Structures are given as C-alpha cells and as structure tokens.
Amino acid sequence: MDAIEVRGLVKDYPLHRGARAMLRNPLHQPVRRVLDHVDLAVAPGEVVGVLGGNGAGKTTLLKIIATIVRPTAGDVRVFGADAASAEREVRAAVAYAFSDDRSFYWRLTGRQNLEFFAAIDGLHGQRAREMIQQSAERVGIGASLDVPFSFYSSGMRQRLSLARALLRRSKILLLDEPTRSIDPVEVREIWSLIRKTLVSEEGVTVLLVTHQSQEAAAVCDRVAVLDGGQLRAQVCADELRRATEGLDGLTIGVEGLRAAALGRLRAVRGVREIALSQDHGEQQLEVWCDPGGLALPELIEVMTASGATVRSLVRSVPVSQLVARLAREGAPV
Fold this sequence. Notes:
- The protein has helices spanning 19-24, 58-65, 87-93, 110-120, 125-138, 154-166, 184-201, 213-219, 237-243, 262-266, 296-305, 319-329; strands at residues 4-14, 31-42, 47-51, 73-78, 81-82, 94-97, 172-176, 205-210, 222-227, 230-236, 248-255, 271-279, 282-289, 309-315.
- It is an alpha/beta fold.
- A six-stranded mixed beta sheet has the order 6-7-8-3-9-10, sandwiched between helices. A four-stranded antiparallel beta sheet has the order 2-1-4-5, covered by helices on one side. The chain has a four-stranded antiparallel beta sheet with strand order 12-13-11-14.
- β9 (222-227) and β10 (230-236) form a beta hairpin.
- α5 packs across α6 (154-166).
- The longest helix is centred in the middle third of the chain and has 18 residues, at 184-201.
- 41% of the residues are buried.
C-alpha cells in the first residue's frame, strides 16, 4: 500500500470578474486551473520531491493532501484512507510544514506558538514541554524559543514551521520549501535531519516541495516535475543530476528590486537570462548563466545600486530550463 496516492487530481480557482462581465453573463464563471489531472504515488519511507517554478501548483498539491484545500476533481488516499471521507484519519497521519509565516502569532514567542499548536494536537503538560524543546533543538532554534516571533529572521521562521510539524511525530511529513531563506551553511543540517534521522532512522515518508534542483537531488529518492499544473516528468536523483549538466544559475532572494533594473542585470557578463517573480510575498530573481562565467560581484553591485537588498543567494539551476530539458527528453511520467 502506498503512503500517498494521488489520482486524476484537478484544482480550479474562480477568477475575479468585474461588474460589467457579471451583468453580461451572470452564469459564466471563468476559472484558473492550478492542477491538471495529476497522478502521483509515494511509497512508505520514500522521499519524493515536487520540483517546479512559482505558480506550478506545488503548494496546492500539498494542501490538498493535507486536507486543507478540497480538490475540484480526483482522489487522494493516505495509507488507503480517502482524504474526502476520512479527513480525521488522514490528518492524524500527516504533518505539514508551511512556508507561510502567517500561520504563527507574531506577538507570541516561538515557545508560546509551539505550545498553542501542541495543545491543538492534544499535547499538554510535561510531555508537550519536552517535545517542544526536542523539536526546536532538532531544527537549531532551541536557544531562541523565548524570543518573540516578530523578531525571528525568515530562516528562523522557516525552522519554527518545521519544528511545529515535528511535534506531531506523524508517519508522513509534507514540507513546503523547508530550506527557503535559511543560511546556505546551515541548509545541509536540515537535509541531514530529513534524510538520515527522519527517514532512515524513524521511517518517515516525506513529500518535499522545492524549486531548487540541488536540494531535490541531495535529499530525494525521486523527483516529480510540475509545470503549469501538469506532471511533466518523474526522475530519480541521478537522472536529475545528469539533466542539470551544462546548466548553471542562481536563485537570489531580493527586496525592492524594480523592473527597470532588469535590463542592466541582463547586460552583466555571463548572464544568459533572468526572471523576476514573487514567492510568498518575497521577490525572487532567477539567473541563468554560463557555467563559471558569471560576474557575480557586478551583478550584486547593479542590484544594490538600484536600491535593492539581497536577502539570500543559492546556486540553483533555473527551474524553467530544467523543466524544458526534462520534458524534451521525454522522462517517464
């Protein structure tokens, strides 16, 4: 029996219409299709990555499996339990680490936030205190638990989200970009926690959303590539590494970067193409460059001179180029 089984999954969101359009045709409701007949299976103890760019449908897929969002069509089963008719059973088996810090209370400390969510899951007293401390230490924020959440950096907030998921000791862990905004030096610690401790020692099944090919290849047994709501390919980690050959790039988290600066950035030596997008309220600049030929100091200088602030920088093959290559090579779905 698969830990997670997704069949024919479809999710449509209604599009906003103006008053004039509603008067002309009140019965017509246009929709935006976020997931388009997605099939995916995850075996017990397996780590499967969902790789794709912003807007590919990755987070929506996790939310449907976690029973937070209802699908338009299709089926989801968790250890055989139907997510539509056995929500309580599915929620007991699944823990979800959000990438959205709006789920936390900003005036409370990290510890108080975890105490609140532990109580929701039925954990109280000494048992709750022990699990909160243990989970926080596992993700590296044990010394910061009594700091107000509003003072946390983006990386610390991401770690607190992971600690919250670990409280439940669930059989399945759904991770939405678990290393987003975390210092690259510390990223490998999170990878080790997922791969060596949670999976190898505790037998947890992990479905991990990411837009970084390096993370997917380092942590996952298998990677499903989503693009435009459709599953374009499924590859093993070695196949993913081979697909990145000849491609190089950076994913840069920025703040205050204006579209007018993109032309100057494209003129920097070694840059082939760039793309600016919003992800969870943060700007992300994807840079596709010649292997080893990027004038990185010049790139940073152009951004800062335009008034932008660099928040994070990760070496990562541009997802758009990788998805195109995998789809072109006909990787099996």
